[in-house]
Write a structure and sequence with these properties.
heterotetramer, A: alpha+beta, Sufe protein. Chain: A, 3-stranded antiparallel beta sheet, 18% strand, globular, B: Aspartate Aminotransferase, domain 1, 7-stranded mixed beta sheet, 4-stranded antiparallel beta sheet, binds pyridoxal-5'-phosphate, NIF_FeS_clus_asmbl_NifU_N (chains A, D), Fe-S cluster assembly sulfur transfer protein SufU (chains A, D)
Chain lengths: 147, 408, 408, 147
């Protein structure tokens, strides 16, 4: 029984993040909390972020979802923790473009581990899983900027 | 023409294809069924020879189209043991249920009245009642399930009272596979004077349904789940209740007389069928019913029982697989919902797809049930008349492959 | 691929048949159009290769079906110059207009507000507004027509005032053929702060329609009138208004989160698309739009203009024939409605049918207009891109035959 | 140009009745008036009937419709004027059965001129035109019997 291009989707790095996600939990001193769900499958991401002086001081996530959504959230939190909100917004845009199949090779390099999620493009039904956490962060930053 | 269930697979062109280099093992029949050649041919024939708008035309094509359309209404009526004027065509089960909720429920409900539904309802038989409850000030109450995944009939009995105005429940759960004792439930509801609405989306096409025997007040199902085209649904209603029920859509064809400020409607079923109906889809539905009858209920029921039992057993034999819903041997329909511990259903479904096995992963539009079961999502394999033991073996092998791949 | 309008007839298999031993002369295109081979093929291909329920599946077929379905949404958006999330799929124009009336109209109207419609509306853009007026206490006011069969713009201007909340009118009259000055009418309505709803059932498919240029708030049309399948309609709405607008049907797929007592909806367009949608029909609609574009607007418009002018003239030349609607040369679409003095339209249509000529006789779902015209019914010949001068000559010859037969 | 089986539908007798309908008008001393319309095409029949002692003393019709509906109304009024309501009900049943394609040859003979409308069966779109007046009379008798 051939498992075809499955290992394209589930690279070891992705499985590692999914099984041992980084920054899982809730922040005691979050000033932004956002829950997003993927209504198609029921994946949920609860993001808690501490944003001060236009900087992501700390970030954590909880919730429930498939290995792609969990790994993606883990990789994202690794990437943006400590970044300025401007920088994080740029990373989010790069990531979402990549998942729409229009990767900007230069920028994609900046995404760290998350760059590996480019392979999800070949599995259209899983794209929403990969983008859920990033869209939550986008909203969280948007809310923070409103204040 | 009598068809043989053993070769039924060959009647469905889509099943001949390969998916990811594997034979297609289509196990998402509860979402939508595939279409036999006869249904596709009926659609093609309609568009190539008879296409015209119905009821309004004096010319040959319009007569042909009208005759076929009304012929299918009679056919559906026979199929469910009802009268032709008790059969309304809609877009699907969802539309049928919304029309009952808004066109009938909202008319008869008073503040303080109670609507009883069950925790195993599909959102399509749940959200419309939430909305109507909100609109009318009625209260929405839930029948719970037992540990076995059956409706708690004792608690159902306790819920029923003089304030119960409408009871709405599914004939078959699209997650648990439970076949509810709908005849008994209808009797109990009628005993307190409540109207009974049945969601038959997962029942029709799997076993005969009989409006006279059930004695329910409304019954809804979809064409696309009984081997017919998308875009067509059925609402059965007792004649005298359809007279009370108000149309929800207004327009051409459903009127008797329109003046500038006032409109007078036709009688049922026409008063509900506003504008150009899904004519080709009605005709395709007729071909689907013919097809089902050419195979025959006893062959369909026997085949689906065999396949479901085999799937249940083969999945149960895989360590780490948890199955939801009643045991085999209980009143249970043609689907098995399960989880593989430690692997999210989405990931399971993706692995299965690489093996050509199409199953559904998610909440199956039944979030309150998911919450009751304490899971956020599950994997579901659901069967149609063309599925066989080979399909089931492929399913089990693919689940074992997923287990291996994720090392759980 | 560019197609030639001169041979377009050959693309429509139904037109090759004989009716009552005569070649079929199909002139009931305003009721429904015939379907090109490409649309039939798209439906067959979908059912034979890609059929699956959309949005919910993780497997290959479901991805294909979802991608094609959403692809057609983008295609429709381009076709009418709008954004994808402003395009909602419905069952047809009638459903589209009912949803606007109930989901938007009933939300924004207050007692005393005014709804302006016209006497030339099809019942589908009239009865829903009567109903909403009744429900909300708003007042329904009518724009009249001039002796030429055009809207009385001066009187329209007088009707508009600060109380006018909604203005709904047809782009093209299905009886008179009048093409209304919808852009100007929209500006005038917006100037008093009213929302504009346009019934485009008789416009789409005949000439390009452009939401950006029109700037209307809602626009409705049907697939089956633009060479697509039955069972599919379109509702365009401006993004910010779709946010305000409430769904009318509730069920699977349109929700974000359902708990026992409360439901949270998705954003537009998904929040309006409850339950299993007419998936195959959406895909067939996509093929119809492709087909129209392969012929090209300028060819379609020129051909229909030529055919309509010829029909008008040939019928006018028959003594005793009375034609309704604007003169040729005015802003007029592809149909001619007429009466033969002394012969009832039904009798005319029956004679025409024996000659293979399919026309419509009756009130055309526009009873208030019939009353205004002072007739109880009329005969209508309406054209599509495949009609030609031969069709028109057959029509005229058949009307002359009717005249002779009834000795009038 | 062949007019096919048209003269089957439009027999001379039908055309005569359509062009010169009998009992057209309104009754001054009607005790039942019924308006029925055929929503498909807009045909209207207004029937006025004087029913006393279970007998149709007088009957007339007005309205607007095609030659089939006008001829049918004319033939019907010829037939039932003076009949007992029981007899008229029997004629109506016979007529409606005939138009559904199940003529009872023996009874059909009693229908007088109206028997000729059997040919309408071959034109399904016109059946409703032929039956409109008869259904109006059925209702009128029904109303009279309620009193
Ligand atoms: C002007 C107009 N509006 C609305 C409709 C209704 O369209 P549909 O029957 O496809 O819902 C029609 C067609 O019958 C029409 O001509
Ligand atoms: C139990 C049940 N009810 C209702 C529905 C809704 O049917 P449809 O999507 O055809 O409207 C479904 C199918 O999705 C179902 O399984």
């Amino acid at each position: 029984m051939s498992l075809g291009n499955l290992s394209d989707l589930y690279r070891q790095l992705i499985l590692d993040h999914a099984q041992h996600p980084h920054h899982r939990g809730e922040l005691a001193n979050a000033n932004q909390t956002i829950s997003l769900n993927n209504p198609t499958c029921g994946d949920v991401v609860n993001l808690s972020v501490e944003i001060n002086d236009d900087q992501i001081k700390d970030i954590a996530f909880s919730g429930d979802g498939c290995s792609i959504s969990q790994a993606s959230a883990s990789m994202m939190t690794d990437l943006v923790k400590g970044q300025s909100t401007a920088q994080a917004k740029k990373e989010i845009a790069t990531f979402l473009e990549m998942l729409m199949g229009n990767p900007d090779e230069k920028d994609v390099d900046d995404l760290g581990d998350a760059a590996i999620l480019a392979t999800v493009v070949k599995f259209p039904a899983r794209i929403k899983c990969a983008t859920l956490a990033w869209k939550a962060l986008e909203q969280a930053i948007g809310e923070a900027e409103k204040k | 023409m009598v068809k043989n269930i053993a070769t039924a697979r060959n009647d469905f062109p889509i099943l001949a294809q390969k998916i990811n280099d594997q034979p297609l093992t289509y196990l998402d029949n509860a979402a939508t069924t595939q279409k036999p050649q006869a249904v596709i041919d009926a659609l093609v024939h309609y568009y190539e020879f008879d296409n015209a708008n119905i009821h309004r035309g004096v010319y040959t094509l319009a007569e042909r189209a009208t005759e076929q359309y009304e012929g299918v209404r009679q056919q559906v009526a026979k199929f469910i043991h009802a009268e032709s004027d008790e059969v309304i065509f809609t877009r699907g089960t969802t539309t049928s249920l919304n029309w009952v909720a808004l066109g009938f429920g909202a008319q008869v409900l008073q503040p303080g009245d109670e609507i009883v539904i069950t925790v195993m309802e599909h959102h399509s038989n749940l959200v419309p009642w939430q909305q109507v409850a909100q609109k009318t000030g009625a209260k929405l109450r839930y029948v719970e399930i037992t540990a076995d995944g059956e409706l708690d009939l004792a608690q159902y009995g306790e819920l029923l009272n003089a304030k119960t105005k409408i009871v709405a429940f599914t004939h078959v759960s699209n997650v648990l596979g439970t076949i509810n004792p709908v005849k008994k439930m209808t009797e109990m509801a009628h005993a307190v004077g409540a109207y009974v609405v049945i969601d038959g989306a997962q029942a029709a096409g799997h076993f005969p349904i009989d409006m006279v025997s059930l004695d329910c007040d409304f019954y809804a199902f979809s064409g696309h789940k009984i081997y017919g085209p998308t875009g067509i649904g059925i609402l059965y209603g007792k004649r005298e209740l359809l007279t009370e029920m108000q149309p929800v859509e207004f327009g051409g064809e459903m009127i008797n007389l329109v003046t500038r400020q006032k409109t007078d409607f036709k009688a049922a079923p026409e008063k509900f069928e506003a504008g150009t109906m899904p004519i080709a889809q009605v005709i395709g539905l007729g071909a689907a019913i013919d097809y089902i009858q050419s195979i025959g209920w006893s062959a369909i029921e026997a085949q689906e029982r065999k396949v479901t039992a085999a799937a249940y057993q083969l999945l149960k034999d895989i360590p780490g697989v948890e199955i939801y819903g009643p045991q085999i041997g209980s009143s249970r329909s043609a689907l098995v919902t399960f989880n593989l511990n430690g692997v999210h259903p989405h990931d399971v479904a993706t692995v299965l797809d690489t093996q050509g096995v199409a199953v559904r992963a998610g909440h199956h539009c039944a979030q309150p049930l998911m919450e009751t079961l304490g899971v956020s999502s599950t994997t579901r394999a659901s069967f149609g008349l063309y599925n066989n033991l080979t399909d089931v073996k492929r399913l089990a092998a693919a689940v074992r492959a997923a287990k291996e791949f994720f090392q759980v």
